[in-house]
Amino acid sequence: MELRHFLQFKDFSREEFDYLFERSRWIKDKFKRYEPYHPLFDRTLVMIFEKASTRTRLSFEAGMQQLGGSAIYLNTRDSQLGRGEPVEDAAQVISRMSDIVMIRTFEQDIIERFAAHSRVPVINGLTNEYHPCQILADIFTYIEHRGSIRGKTVAWVGDSNNMCNTWLQAAEVLDFNVHVSTPPGYEVEPERAGLYGTGHFEQFADPMQACKGADLVTTDVWTSMGFEAENEARMKAFADWCVDAEMMAVAAPDALFMHCLPAHRGEEVTAEVIDGPQSVVWDEAENRLHVQKALLEFLLLGRVKA
Ligand code: CP
Ligand code: NVA
Questions:
Q1: Are residues 272 and 292 in the same domain?
Q2: What is the pLDDT of residues 135-174, one digit of tens each?
Q3: What pLDDT is attached to residue 235?
Q4: Predicted confidence (pLDDT) at residue 185 exceeds the cutoff of 90
Q5: In a 3-state reduction of DSSP, which class is residue 143?
Q6: Which atom of ligand 1 is nearest to the CA of 225?
Q7: Residue range 35-63: average pLDDT?
């Protein structure tokens, strides 16, 4: 089988995502019926964390076990990764002892180098630049609630971070639009976002304009992991980029609200919105489990169903 990685959203085609969403549905339904499904019996996932996590660790670890395999957790503090072992050497060793690897790290370059020296598939569990597993879950969640995302408009309010970049890549692959509003100085950098430049996004100075008529409004923390030194400046710069009821009111009447979590109520979103009726944040979090099980199955077994 051809070795595939999921390092950024554009690594897969629209047709492959359609397959993954269909498998996610099947795997989720089976799980909800308490029917065991162990296609990854005896397979081992290694999870490497250089940053904190609740959802990503839990969903990968539980997901791998539910599929009949096992998961091993490594972090920078307790492994040689934190003591300067070259990432290329680590990749050689780790991929000889496991079947698949998930990494959460800093620069995208680190995961690209790891994958280039790995014998097994590598999954991006978040880098400074991208968070493709989260967007996989978010789009699956959108489909569950509203049907196809094709041709829809997503409003991104806040930082042009790893989540924003991945939404922008997804828009190009799956053919929808993203309206981005960031404070001045924090705008999207199309090259860093890895865009083909197919014109699927527009930038707005005013977040209200970005939200106008949107089918989905989404945001994320003002300060991502690894950027803590900028926190004070960001708190000032982002003060007007808080998703509130007024923003939701100018979006489409049936607009959804999403946030990858963890969230800071009163900063990037009001409690009224994140805890309100348009919010689907708990479904988003749960769906990490189901879509990543489909992803693990796809990378290890290929297509199991025509
Ligand atoms: N959304 C997300 O990736 O959460 P964690 O940081 O808890 O893994
Ligand atoms: N943008 C956030 C997402 C956390 C899941 C971060 O990188 O910290």
A1: no
A2: 999 999 999 999 999 999 999 999 999 999 999 999 999 9
A3: 98
A4: yes
A5: helix
A6: 6
A7: 98
Asked if 297 and 32 count as a contact pair (C-beta separation under 8 A), the reply is no
Q: Do 56 and 113 have their domain in common?
A: yes
Provide the pairing of β-strand 256-259 with 216-219. Answer: parallel
Q: What is the mean pLDDT of residues 191-200?
A: 95
Distance, in Å, from the CA atom of 10 to the CA atom of 8, rounded to the nearest integer, reads 6
Q: Give the number of the atom of ligand 2 that is nearest the alpha carbon of residue 220.
A: 1
> Of all protein residues, whose CA lies closest to atom 1 belonging to ligand 1?
260
Find out whether the beta carbon of 161 lies less than 6 Å from any atom of ligand 2.
yes
Are 244 and 38 in contact, with CB atoms under 8 Å apart? no
So what's the pLDDT on residue 306?
Answer: 57
**Which ligand does the CA of 165 lie closest to?**
2
Q: What is the pLDDT of residues 58-93, one digit of tens each?
A: 999 999 999 999 999 999 888 888 889 999 999 999
Domain range for 67 is 9-131+285-301
**36 Cα–ligand 2 center, Å:** 32
Q: Is 133 a catalytic residue?
A: no
The answer to whether 107 and 124 are in contact (CB under 8 A) is no
Residue 146 included in any domain: yes
Gap from CA of 191 to ligand 2 centroid (Å): 20
Query: Residue 256's closest CA among 284, 286, 217, 208?
Result: 217
CATH number, domain with residue 139: 3.40.50.1370
The answer to the question of residue 2 being in a domain is no
201 within a domain of the structure (yes/no)? yes
- Separation of alpha carbons 208 and 217, rounded Å: 11
**How many domains is the chain partitioned into structurally?**
2
Q: Are 117 and 152 in contact (CB under 8 A)?
A: no
Rounded to the nearest integer, the mean pLDDT of the chain is: 97
